[in-house]
Amino acid sequence: MTALTLSTAGAATLRADALVVGVAKGSKGPVLAPGAEAVDKAFDGKLATVLEALGTTGAEGEVTKLPAPDGLKVPVVIAVGLGSAPEKDGAYDAEALRRAAGSAARVLAGAKKAGFALPLASAGDAGAVAEGALLGAYAFTAYQGGEDKLAPKGKKNGNGPKLPLAEVALLGGKPRDKAFKAAVERATAVTEEINRARDLINTPPNDLYPESFAAVATAAGKEHGIKVQVLDEKALVKGGYGGLLGVGQGSSHGPRLVKLAYTHPKAEKTLALVGKGITYDSGGISLKPAGHNETMKCDMSGAAAVFAAVVAAARLGLQVNVTGWLALAENMPSGNATRPGDVLRMYSGKTVEVLNTDAEGRLVLADALTRASEEKPDAIVDVATLTGAMVLALGNRTFGIMANDDAFRTSIHEIADEVGEASWPMPLPADLRKGMDSPTADIANMGERMGGGLVAGLFLQEFVGEGITWAHLDIAGPAFHEGAPYGYTPKGGTGSAVRTLVGLAERTAAGDLG
What we know:
14 helices; single chain; eight-stranded mixed β-sheet; seven-stranded mixed β-sheet; 32% helix
């Protein structure tokens, strides 16, 4: 993990591999952001002019490298775009700061130390820059650059990956100010857990399966004082968890239901978080077509997000009880696999006719939602890479929010916006429920094709305890990024929804959710 400090050094005196400054789009060309004054002075007050001559506009995501002039102790200056400059005396948007810091951290891969002289008008700005830098510096290298036994002794395979930027020094961040210090400590804890979730998502499915995921959760629980309970196959059979068992029965790796419980002695509210944890999704007997299997290791992103959020809540010591439920299974075709037409008896007692074994996430979530409801939490939020229909509706960067309470849905949308995660409120139209009527069972796991993401939400709602406030986050789009990295978003697992869940826990601890 990249180290991060609030530095008392000045931009002109810092010794590092590079110095990062911000540049924004002004009405008459690029303008330097606060924090760049010492660097501009080293350029004789002409840094903006030099940048403009090089084609820099200040647009978001733009990165320009310059050799440093005399007067600086660094060899390179990196100007990162912040987007449109705020109105006079206005603050830069937190998400713009995150993305700029992330872009800079990415291009600094392989460097030992860099100073970030971005605008820090408040402790919140310091937290945003810290988050962006630490998320942007992420790299998944566990399977690269190992020793090659056929090569001369000690030689590694290929050239090996570039390691992430080793150290970030935030300049102008008031290290003795309690608010600034707290903001950076919070950012460090949350981003470390997001990056842990990314690691899980990126881990190949031959190494990450229900039992091994449960072992990771158990180890983290011991480290952070979280009580962990793992239900294995025998316990699931005894308890009647038909959804988890039905999905997992085609695999040689049996399913698990993992409960993580963080409690605070002064907590007045309890949040239950439920995550879909399909460690690999082949579609089962309803096999996915060619070209749709290669990234299906990411189908446990919801469980990874829930796991990360519970650990982050514990690390932050939030005054709220947070219980995480990881519904873990591997969906594989075999002679033992559930068939289309089979009927499963769920943990709730309801029966479900399986019309499509590739609609498996809702089955494991249903069991976990019922189990979570038994503990009567103040609210339940489930997180899942649930439907391709949600990607068609909202694209690859935005997750959908459904809920049985409009005010709760609005609160989650507001929180997501505050922390920089794109989301959109979605309805649960009652008329779509009829499409899941089954002549054989209480409900089918499929309904109308149009509005499929909403149909999935309606299915899940059937398994939420009466009177419990509930929301469903469908993160199928933003959970796994297949394109080129941008801002602080890497290629591969993103850790989508972790920041929103942590924000929800913080707001609940503060008593702001009623």
